[in-house]
Specification:
Elements: H1 9-18, H2 22-34, H3 43-51, E1 56-59, H4 68-76, E2 80-84, H5 88-100, E3 105-108, H6 114-125, E4 131-134, H7 136-139, H8 142-148, E5 153-158, H9 181-184, E6 190-194, H10 199-208, E7 215-218, E8 226-232, H11 236-246, E9 252-256, H12 259-271, E10 276-279, H13 285-296, E11 302-306, E12 320-323, H14 330-337, E13 347-353, H15 355-366, H16 372-388, H17 394-401, H18 414-417, E14 422-424, H19 426-438, H20 445-452, H21 458-462, H22 479-491, E15 495-500, E16 503-508, H23 512-516, E17 523-525, H24 545-562, H25 566-569, H26 572-581, H27 586-589, H28 597-622
Parallel strand pairs: 1-6, 1-7, 2-4, 2-5, 3-4, 5-6, 8-13, 9-11, 9-12, 10-11, 12-13
Antiparallel strand pairs: 14-17, 15-16
Domain HRDC: 541-621
Pfam families: DEAD, Helicase_C, HRDC, RecQ_Zn_bind, RQC
GO molecular function: 3'-5' DNA helicase activity; ATP binding; DNA binding; four-way junction helicase activity; hydrolase activity; metal ion binding
């Protein structure tokens, strides 16, 4: 699509001085190309700074329109924009979306053949491209600099910029070499972008990239459309299957911490009739790409991915993200859970938690050599542990971690919606502490509970623990009940878990003495034994649900015919807006967010026809029944 009114370097350099309204061209691009009527919070200021030739650091939550912050300037500059991104899958996805909007974009990466790379390079050299996506490894090669010296580069965007910092949750050494780009492209402004960066990470980004007099924008980290919920693990696989089944076919991602577990979870979900597949670095490339494509095209409901291997999927209609295992940092958890609800519609982020997961990660860190990086990892693990064990609003824990100081609860997390109920837990605590003491402080949680509940098993009989005074004193409560109480006593510092050759052993701390003696009062949270989080919520607005379902079906048909993911046709948010306003003319349709000029020409007609049919059918259904008198009456 030809782009008129590009901003020249002379206009850019003098814009601040002469107050040239460069933002009007940017707004025109937003409306005509992407179909959005207005900038979202922070976008206008960031885009203006780029068009005025300033470097910038942009920290915006996933789903806040971060990509548009560099895509809009790219359409305003006459030359080429380089976009550096660490994930091949995300590059392809974003290029597909840009091409669907009529934008000349392409990518270079190691998955392409030599001939394919040459074709892309020739398009860039001849000025046919507005945006070129690259990996950091590709940028640092001699061949790249020989090729790019033949292009006019006006702008550089570095996505996932937190990867440059050792404080970032996904540190990548190759990112640290990107600081040399300023010397090679002295006149091109550089924009660094990330969704997750605390203060230390932000300082590292500015320093390593050599950003000059940068405009710094740190937006809100709040994702109010996401409901954060923690579920205690009791029967985790069963709990996960019930949760996914309750989603009734909605798209979701399940994260876990090993390839074998990803395969096992995916197989279990398939046996439950759920379209699921594993996605991890151990898969053959072709299979991994097929899984990704099937997920993007809504042929798969769930992808089960390893935490260590980023999905990098720009899929807007992911309605839930479930963490089967604990993430290694709040940044990682925030970014992974943030892949839900990118369209700003209601979404779920559920963390299945067992303190043993935390203890295992802690042990992994302790086994590493002493270093500054190890201390950083330990600090970040402690922070995610505090988030998981918090008894206060989960959103406040996240926001305050990132320095966005808030005190008002969100009313959209498990703590706010179902506050912990307290009870006098002294007697329960004494039973548990006594059992641990009588067992010689040499056994783990499950064995202690088995003794408390008076189970008849071979190991208990062989150890003659069925003769202890504590044997069977907790048979009136379930295993899950005692698990919850033991975890609370661990959190409160009365019990510690010590890892040995036989696993995690429970031992008493000095703080346990006054509890055993009954010298202190002890309030505990009533154990939550439900397998499922609260899922019901009010919709954003009262759109026509029947029409929305029909529009989604039409979208899938069109997407399959065009061989593209459905959300590239129109997002769920756009279809909901169509279901609410029911546009039947071009002018009405172009007022719907997400319907730009190219998408109007390419996709809109069938949707308007369906809306007309739906309105006509509804009108006929509302007509009063007319009874005609019989002949001869």
């Amino acid at each position: 699509m030809p782009m008129a009114d590009s901003i020249s370097s002379e206009e850019r350099c003098g814009a601040e001085e002469q107050k040239i309204p460069v933002i009007s061209t940017a707004l025109s691009r937003l409306q005509q190309v992407f179909g959005y009527q207005n900038f979202r919070q922070g976008q206008e200021e960031v885009i203006r700074s780029a068009l005025e030739g300033r470097d910038s650091l942009v920290v915006m939550a996933t789903g806040s329109g971060k990509s548009l912050c560099y895509q809009i300037p790219a359409l305003c500059f006459p030359g080429l924009t380089l976009v550096i991104s660490p994930l091949i899958s995300l590059m392809k996805d974003q290029v597909d979306q840009l091409c669907a909007n009529g934008v000349a974009a392409d990518y270079l990466n190691s998955a392409q053949s030599f001939e394919q790379q040459q074709q892309v390079q020739n398009k860039a050299i001849s000025g046919q491209l507005k945006l070129l996506y690259l990996s950091p490894e590709k940028v640092m090669t001699n061949g790249f600099f020989h090729f790019i010296s033949q292009c006019r580069v006006d702008f550089i965007a570095i996505d996932e910029a937190h990867c440059i910092s050792q404080w970032g949750h996904d540190f990548r050494p190759e990112y640290t070499r990107l600081g040399g780009l300023k010397a090679c492209f002295a006149n091109a402004p550089v924009m660094a972008l990330t969704a997750t960066a605390d203060s230390s990470t932000r300082q590292d980004i500015l320093r390593h990239l050599n950003l000059q007099r940068p405009y710094i924008y740190v937006g809100s980290f709040d994702r109010p459309n996401i409901r954060y919920t923690l579920v205690e693990k009791f029967k985790p696989m069963e709990q996960l299957c019930r949760f996914v089944a309750a989603q009734k076919g909605k798209s979701g991602i399940v994260y876990c911490n090993s390839r074998s577990k990803a395969e096992r979870i995916a197989e279990t979900l398939r046996k439950q009739g759920i379209a699921a597949a594993a996605y991890h670095a151990g898969l053959e490339n072709g299979l991994r790409e097929r899984v990704q494509q099937d997920f993007q095209r809504d042929n798969l409901q769930v992808v089960v991915a390893t935490i260590a291997f980023g999905m990098g999927i720009n899929k807007s209609n992911v309605r839930f993200v479930a963490h089967f295992d604990l993430s290694r940092s709040i940044e990682a958890y925030y970014q992974e859970s943030g892949r839900a609800g990118r369209d700003d519609l209601a979404a779920e982020a559920v963390l299945f938690y067992d303190p043993a997961d935390y203890a295992w990660l802690q042990r992994m860190i302790a086994e590493k050599e002493e270093s500054p990086q190890r201390r950083i990892e330990q600090y970040k693990l402690e922070a995610i542990g505090e988030f998981a064990e918090s008894q206060t609003c989960r959103r406040l824990v996240l926001l305050n971690y990132f320095g966005e100081n808030r005190q008002t609860p969100c009313n959209n997390c498990d703590i706010c919606l179902d506050p912990p109920k307290k009870y006098d837990g002294l007697l329960d605590a004494q039973k548990i502490l006594s059992a641990i003491y009588r067992l010689g402080q040499r056994y783990g949680i499950q064995y202690v509970i088995a003794v408390l509940r008076g189970l008849q098993n071979q190991k208990i009989r062989e150890n003659r623990h069925d003769s202890l005074s504590v044997y069977g004193i907790g048979r009136d409560k379930s295993k899950e009940y005692w698990q919850s109480v033991i975890r609370q006593l661990i959190h409160l510092g009365f019990i510690r878990q010590v890892f040995g050759d036989v696993g995690a052993v429970l031992q008493l701390t000095e703080s346990a003495r006054p509890v055993l003696r009954g010298e202190v009062a002890l309030s505990l949270a009533t154990p939550r034994l439900s397998s499922l989080p609260v899922l019901h919520r009010a919709q954003k607005y009262d759109y026509d649900k029947d029409l929305f379902a029909r529009l989604r079906f039409l979208r899938k048909q069109i997407a399959d015919k065009e061989n593209i993911p459905p959300y590239i046709v129109f997002s769920d948010a756009t279809l909901q807006e169509m279901s609410l306003h029911q546009p039947t003319s071009k002018s009405e349709m172009l007022q719907i967010n997400g319907v730009g000029a190219i998408k109007w020409e390419r996709f809109a007609q069938p949707f308007m026809s369906l809306i007309r049919q739906h309105k006509s059918a509804r009108t006929e259904a509302k007509q009063p029944l007319r009874l005609e008198a019989p002949e001869g009456s």
